Amino acid sequence: MPALNSSSMPDIVFAILFFFMVTTTMRSETLMVRIKLPTASEVQKLEKKSLVTYINIGPPMDERLGTGTRMQLNDRFAEVSEIQDYIAQEKASMNEADQPLMTVSIKADEETRMQYITDVKQALRQAYALKISYSARQGQNQ
Amino acid sequence: MAKTSRKVPALNASSMADISFLLLTFFLLVSNMDVDSGLARRLPPPPQSEEQTSQEVQRRNLLVVLVNSRNETMVQNQMSSEWYATVEELRGAGGKVPLKDKVKEFVLNTSNSEQLPELTEKDFGPPIGIVPVTDQHVISIQNDATTSYKMYIAVQNEVVRAYNELREEGARKYFNTSYDELTEDQKNQINDLYPQRISEAEPKNYGGQ
Fold this sequence. Notes:
The complex is a heterodimer of chains A (142) and B (209). With 142 residues, chain A is of the alpha/beta class. Chain A has one domain (28-138). In chain A, 27% of the residues lie in helices and 22% in strands. In chain A, the strands form two sheets. A five-stranded mixed β-sheet of chain A has the order 5-4-3-6-7, with helices on one face. A two-stranded parallel ribbon of chain A has the order 1-8. The radius of gyration of chain A is 20 Å and the shape is elongated. Chain B has a domain at 56-200. Chain B contains five helices and eight strands, in the order H-E-E-E-E-H-H-E-E-E-H-H-E. Chain B has helices at residues 16-30, 87-90, 99-108, 149-175, 184-193, and strands at 37-42, 62-67, 73-76, 81-84, 120-123, 130-133, 138-143, 198-200. At the A-B interface, helix 1, strand 2, strand 6, helix 3 and strand 7 of A face helix 1, strand 1 and helix 4 of B.
């Protein structure tokens, strides 16, 4: 049986490698709240990841912390009053030209009560982060 | 000069594949492909002074969509009001008029009714030309403190669906193609024709726990 010529294998693997290197975005934070996103059929994709700031809302993963709704900004739990500082910080780390395009993606658990979301929305208004997106999974409800 | 023919020994490249596989596996593991998606909204800027908190909107131009603490939805304009108890009913189960049809009727006002938003003639450039539109209409989505986020998103979704269907119909009517296939300029024209005028009201506390 003739030996299979595998000299082009590294080339192929490199091609795949470069694809993944380009498309990859490093997982920057570990979720500390449990989030089951609601479903919606009319969702739009958020295009530029560098312009998106995330706010995670849901019950804590660690059950010792109770089942109340908590909010995670970056890698720690935070209160609603800290949103303004967080947004200001995130804005400062952006390009000046990109700052008006900043989008805040609210990733909230579907069982969250609207009171919490409303408080967050009011805080975002005060911080002039007016472009928001309610994160949702593509699909039909139920 | 004596020319000694020195041969460069061939580099052993057989481990190249192993190394690149290793790198490949690393990137496979750390990459996450899922793109975040959601319903985009624009919040109003914060109120500047105490007095300037509410905007006056004519009653006929307003469609109130209220989701209460029992996750029931009420849709009300000057003409009629309708209650929906579940998400299925929002889509038309149980003989109800689906929420999206209510919204479309409200936005279009084809019958030029006194009870629906007023029509003004506007020029949208060729090929649309001058058409009457309800450019003052407002859909106000309101909620209670204990409304669940899931229901709120479901209602938002139905309203956005109504607008998307209107835009799709507009694209078919004026450009004879689907909305997704329009150029950027044509999309803007259609978006101007049917602008999303959804207001997320200032929080109010209605009854409820």
